[in-house]
Amino acid sequence: MTDTTDPGLPHAIALAWGVAENPQRGPRRELSIERIVEQAIEIADAEGLGALSMSKLAAALGYTTMSLYRYVTSKDDLLLLMQEQAIDVDLPSGAQPELTAVLEGRIPAGDEPTWRRGLREFALASLAVYEAHPWFLDVAVQGVPLTPNNLRFVDLGLRAMHGTSLSDADKLAMIMLVTSYAQSAARIQRELRGARQDPAGRDVSGAAYAEVFSELVTPERFPYLHPVVASGAYLSEDDGVDDVVFGLERVLDGIGVYVERTPAERAESPLPPHEEREAAELYARDARVKEASKARREAEKAVREAEKRLKEARKRERDAAKAAAERAARD
Predict the structure, then answer these.
(1) 261 and 164 in a common domain
(2) Which domain holds residue 317?
(3) Residue 305 located in a structural domain
(4) pLDDT in tens, 28-47
(5) Which residues cross the membrane (predicted)?
(6) Helices (H), the chain
């Protein structure tokens, strides 16, 4: 931390840039912003964000809680600084060894557009951060990135698209798209890992329920899902596809279509009007839609009950036929 004066930025952002005022008074000089953030990350990595508190952090450091507040004014400030430290990574061309290990095997070889490889590396580096620090996904977004490491990461994304004819707004939108995909994929992967580590040993693939599931997913109720379930693909434990990378490649395919258009073609293919989005939101809230959904659920319940009664009747018929056959055999 420098001795410069806070330039009017929010305190945590000023700390990240090293332009915040030093605390006037504090504990022994061994305590520092860097040490506080490192210890906080260590706790969050091991136990999750919910386990992190200022009092627990202070105890781990061997100081009082009030001592920490001389350096970080709130837990929100601390979380921002933790994210800032966690995202201090490079893309594979200059990656840290541990990041290179995480990305190994995920980046295909061969000739392809520079922007595509760059955005892929950007996405996989983001995934590596989320995999190394799962708590990162639990920190609420507070606004546009304004801290140096976050901005450097944005800069790496922009570098990937530097040779394209995309506008500045398009480039930022692509970074948002790729980042959103990486966050969503990482969140699902984290939750699946958590489910697999459940002491109860839950079957997260659903393969153990394949037989009964195939009976529940009928062609009448699920006309398009039924054949997928019947083929075994839906509950397959290992189909040989890395779903995260597969999804990322399809995102990049879509970006590729847009990149290949000329600026004039992009201008001639506007987004759907805002009115369509508003109409969709109104549709979801419409009382008539809710009533129709309720009627559908009731109809489905009636069908399930009828199917149950039919199944029970067939069972009674089979039992009666079996009993009759046994009597005939005895006679």
Answers:
(1) yes
(2) 289-330
(3) yes
(4) 557 889 999 999 999 999 99
(5) none
(6) 11-17, 33-47, 54-61, 65-69, 75-86, 97-103, 114-132, 148-160, 168-196, 210-216, 225-231, 243-260, 263-267, 274-285, 287-330
In a domain, 108, yes or no: yes
Residue 15: CB atoms within 10 A of its CB come to: 25
CA gap 187, 130 in Å, rounded: 8
| Coil/strand/helix, residue 21 | coil
Q: What is the C-alpha separation between 5 and 14, in angstroms, rounded?
A: 9
The confidence score (pLDDT) of residue 19 equals 83
Q: How far apart are the first and last CA of the chain?
A: 99
**Residues near 268 by beta carbon (within 8 Å), at least 6 away in sequence:** none
Which helix (H) or strand (E) is 79 found in, with range?
helix 75-86
Nearest Cα to 157, choosing from 170, 142, 146, 143? 170
Global pTM reads 0.78
In a domain, 224, yes or no: no
Burial of 89 (0-12, 13-18, 19+ CB in 10 A): buried
| Token pair belonging to 280 | 């969709």
pLDDT at residue 3 in the model: 42
